[in-house]
Amino acid sequence: MKILGISCFYHDSAACLIIDGKIMAAAQEERFTRKKHDASFPKKAIKYCLKEANLKTEDLDLVAFYDKPFLKFERILETYFKYAPKGFASFIKALPAWLKEKLWIPQIIEKELGYKGKIVFSQHHQSHAVSAFYPSPFKEAAFLTVDGVGEWATTSFGIGRGNKLEIDSEIHFPDSLGLLYSAFTYYTGFKVNSGEYKIMGLAPYGEVKYKDLIYQHLIKVKEDGSFKLNMDYFNYHVGLTMTSKKFDKLFGGPPRQPESELTQREMDLTRSVQEVIEEVIIKIARHIKKKTGQKYLCLAGGVALNCVANGKLLREGIFEDIWIQPASGDAGGALGAALFAWYQYLDQDRQARQPDSQSGSYLGPSFNDQEIEDFLRKNNLPYQKLEDYQLYNRVTDLMLEEKVIGWFQGRMEYGPRALGNRSIIGDARSEKMQKKMNLKIKFRESFRPFAPSVMEDKVGEFFEIDRPSPYMLLVADVREDKRRWMTEEEKKLWGIKKLNVVRSKIPAITHIDYSARLQTVSRQANPRYYSLIERFYEKTGCPVIVNTSFNVRGEPIVCTPKEAYTCFMRTEMDCLVLGNYLLIKDNQPEFREDEDWRSKYELD
Q1: Domain-by-domain residue ranges, the chain?
Q2: Phi, psi (deg, nearest 5) at residue 266
Q3: How far apart are CA 195 and CA 544, in angstroms?
Q4: 166-178: pLDDT as tens digits
Q5: How far apart are CA 88 and CA 98, in angstroms?
Q6: Fewest CB within a 10 Å sphere: which of 62, 151, 466, 546?
């Protein structure tokens, strides 16, 4: 039974293919079109998924879509009627997209794919819930989904047992934790639906100055975690902005202009809303535990990518363990829709697997050594081919020289995180690495922290955590015996000035609050990446390296060897590893932006 799952038309469109319940392939459309957060119909992602399994459209048994467009349109109409005549301009702007494509999913699928078979529709939060529970290692668990908005729901919880999953309770639009967080994203000058992780990274630089104001004016939270927003302060329900003039007045001025200088106000605002989100999530989790009595909790929805809140939730010990869908945003809806069709619509049996059935989320395209060598030779690019043991040894030595390395291996990751197959890596012990990677490689804001990749069996030596974190979705503190304590003078520093203070034996990945968004790497999930870190550990006694996604600011993570080489040459990256091929920057020919790098392996 071959099922194609699709999510699209809002942000982060994606496709997923499952065969007899096994996840065979999944990818976001942005990786093929090179348009960040591409919301268009995922034609290229679908083409990849079918190619990966050597299938054609006519081989598909079912297509599943991740939400119910008519319910969503009903919510939009009801909202505009409720607040009319306010929002008329916004309504007129939104209407053409609905009338042209968003209401015509079956027709679009038939037109784009030539598919005329059965189409199954899951509700948006049902897709999130399914993506959280079914791939998890638990036979039975509670689930929590939190995002901006689906059709009506913004938050939901329930229980999954075997192949059955039921939503017990929902909170509806316009009350939304995701949209509250996005409102602060907008107000502090970052882009909604992509900048939320930036305000999470900025928060530790601030003080909890505005939390009481947020609780007094913006959100009322009950003891069970249910909440209601005061819509006088927001504009997203009827307008073209996230916040209202009343919001501006409450926090002392208009929104920060994008790319302008960050001030202490923005840092304090992000810290305050981050703490509010954490506190509400923990209240909801306690209520879910009380209501369901379950040992385990599964999470999905865009807010589940808030790894700081996830780490705090885990440390609270409300549940024995939690599992978070690595593609928790809308991209994961494609997976959720396909699994919904398999388990709920077709009523197939489910066997929970350890550590999970997500395959490390390595579900995208791969390129073997022959394909890589063909690309290098066709373009006359100097390289050295190394055996595995030589490669791990050489790359370790390069990291010890504080070189920054593009690491391109195996299947591309599904979800927003690079997990060691499309990564930029370096020595976590280097005091220069964080600044160098941000300014010269990623071309992004200097305050942004980097993540550590650590050998799973050594994680407890450096971090205060007692379990794996394979998907970079938990924040844990660096162990006290690995920290460097601040001097009295350093403690007086404010804001971004805190950035340059060395805080631990692994300063490149230690945030200013001694935390790290860590990825644990197992030999089972990613043997090549594990072997590299293991070699680094053998030479240094440190089982931790820096891992950031293989892209520059504003671009999707690279998918192909051609894109990896282009990113390598556009930045001050020192070396590039494509499979078993090592390329040194100083040996490469002069790079021209308009160069037509020849590769028959691009997925057109």
Answers
A1: 2-133+326-359, 177-321, 369-587
A2: -60, -40
A3: 27
A4: 999 999 999 999 9
A5: 15
A6: 466
